[in-house]
Design a protein that fits this description.
Layout lengths: L2 H36 L5 H34 L6 H8 L4 H28 L4 H25 L10 H35 L5 H8 L1 H7 L2 H15 L4 H26 L7 E7 L10 E7 L4
Antiparallel strand pairs: 1-2
Helix pairs in contact: 1-2, 1-10, 2-3, 2-4, 2-10, 4-5, 4-6, 4-10, 5-6, 6-9, 7-8, 9-10
Keywords: Membrane, Transmembrane, Transmembrane helix
Length: 300
């Protein structure tokens, strides 16, 4: 199988899978919107989640629509273009629809990572020092993504060559490192809280916040795994890179939307919490100091 054919198949499969996950994102957003709307308590964060979720879905719709348009133009309208599908896509990398799609992808990544950073800050008891390094990584990744977009928009250039490619690789690498640290920090915190509080609170009380599913969702593990897979295929120059790149924006939406769904369901960690403070009195609970943990009981 030629490299060109392998890339075309990968792109076709990626777009197909992306369309399926896009449908899942739409359904999840509608369910989340309904759950947020029926809650009697009206707060500013509730409005924020409505707007945030809508913007995520809007940007994702732009990504999916521009990808489908590019596919139609390459495979159907201009299938006899010199160099085939790959030749057409490369020659029109700076077309308006591709530029719009790139802006939407960068926006999705920035918004998704911002929520990840906020959730980590929240779970670590509003500790700035705990997330300071992550904050630096976040802004560095955003800066690289913007530089990639600006460099790729220059006349005679695109995001697939020159400095734009280098900025893009740095952006992806920083994003992967950021995601790994976020996942590890949140998972560690939730597991640590469970091990401490299981001696004080019933398992049924802790389960919504420290169960396996809760840790997977709260730590953004699926998004991190997709990012790692994308980085690996990118380094190996595997055709699978094209498919993952097509699917990746959907996970930029799915991961935070799952968090918002948990918030709307009243089982996510939030600022509106019950503070469970206890003093450890037995060796197995380690510290002899008062430890403050939060158990979310209501939507922010």
């Amino acid at each position: 199988m030629s490299e060109q054919l392998a890339n075309e198949r990968s792109l076709y499969v990626g777009n197909a899978v992306s369309s399926v996950i896009y449908g899942m994102n739409v359904m999840l957003y509608l369910q989340t919107y309904h759950r947020l709307s029926v809650r009697t308590r009206k707060t500013h964060p509730k409005t924020f989640y409505h707007i945030y979720g809508a913007l995520l879905l809007l940007f994702l719709t732009l990504v999916v629509a521009t990808d489908q348009l590019a596919g139609q133009l390459a495979w159907i309208e201009n299938r006899d273009y010199p160099g085939g599908v790959q030749g057409y896509l490369k020659a029109h990398a700076t077309a308006w629809y591709n530029t719009l799609g790139t802006v939407a992808v960068i926006s999705l990544d920035a918004m998704s990572n911002a929520l990840m950073l906020y959730r980590c800050y929240l779970i670590w008891n509003d500790s700035i020092s705990a997330v300071l390094a992550l904050l630096v990584l976040y802004f560095a990744a955003v800066a690289m993504s913007i530089m990639m977009m600006l460099e790729g928009a220059l006349p005679g250039s695109n995001i697939f060559k020159g400095l734009a490619v280098q900025y893009g690789i740095i952006w992806i690498a920083l994003t992967v490192v950021f995601n790994i640290f976020i996942t590890v920090m949140i998972s560690f915190r939730l597991i640590r809280v469970y091990r401490r509080l299981k001696h004080v609170l019933p398992t049924e009380t802790l389960k919504p916040y420290t169960s396996t599913v809760a840790i997977i969702v709260e730590s953004f593990l699926p998004f991190t795994i997709v990012n790692i897979a994308y980085m690996v295929t990118l380094i190996k120059s595997s055709p699978a890179e094209v498919a993952i790149a097509a699917v990746w924006p959907n996970f930029c939406v799915l991961a935070p939307q799952l968090i918002i769904f948990r918030v709307a369901s009243g089982v996510a960690w939030s600022k509106d919490t019950t503070h469970v403070t206890f003093t450890t009195v037995s060796p197995e609970l380690s510290d002899q100091s008062s430890i403050d943990y939060r158990v979310s009981v209501e939507i922010t």
